[in-house]
Task: structure prediction
Amino acid sequence: MALRPEPFGALAYHYGNRRLNFLRSPDLVAVVEALGRHRSAAAALDACHIAAGRRRSFAAALGSLLESEVIRAR
Result:
């Protein structure tokens, strides 16, 4: 997977399945980049200072990225 920064956030490309995903928020890009450094998605959200009111939308976005194999469960 590769992230290409864009003004709106980033493009995420999966080399294996050739899917392209739009990350439409710089905050979401930061969370995706932080996932590997934290033990859970919740810990990554905490580290990126994502407010409680925004977490549901971030969970949905991460779920979509999981389904498209851009990220994977540990």
User: Anything to note?
Assistant: The mean pLDDT is 95.
